[in-house]
Write a structure and sequence with these properties.
This protein is mostly helical and 149 residues long. 56% of the residues lie in helices and 0% in strands.
Length: 149
């Protein structure tokens, strides 16, 4: 237990003496972080959730607002639809993401606006067909490469 401040001794000089004595005894030599620079956010304003943000950064986690998360999900769904093996799966992927987009449009959460509308299923299917035809044409044309005499 620490000793009590003697009466009549100014508080600041008593604290300074305590610190000097502890330094002489080497009590600060084995502290974690010794010799390392202070964190960059030391001058930032106080944040009650600093420890959560630091843990999330350390573990590589991030949390997006619901609208931004749905935008990302919709973009990923469109890419998955273009890579789908069948038209039925393309339609299912686009229909499922459209349901979420419509829900978000009619019940917007707080945060940034969605800025998207549901995908046109027929337009996505048509694009999927064109991409498959182009990929099929390239694959068929590559195997018949003839050398001109």
């Amino acid at each position: 237990m620490t000793e009590r401040k003697p009466p009549g001794v100014p508080f600041e000089s008593w604290v300074d003496k305590q610190i000097r004595d502890a330094e002489r005894r080497g009590e600060f030599d084995q502290l974690s972080g010794v010799g390392k620079p202070l964190p960059a956010d030391i001058e930032a304003p106080y944040d009650e959730l600093w420890w959560i943000r630091r843990k999330m950064a350390r573990e590589g986690l991030s949390v997006l607002p619901p609208t931004l998360a749905l935008r990302k999900e919709a973009e990923d769904a469109l890419a998955a639809a273009y890579a789908a093996p069948s038209e039925r799966i393309v339609r299912k992927i686009v229909t499922d993401v459209n349901v979420k987009l419509r829900d978000m449009m009619f019940k917007p959460p707080p945060g940034p606006p969605l800025g998207m509308k549901p995908y046109d299923v027929e337009a996505v299917v048509q694009e999927w067909r064109e991409r498959r035809a182009a990929a099929g044409g390239r694959a068929a044309g590559e195997g018949t490469g003839r050398a001109d005499p």
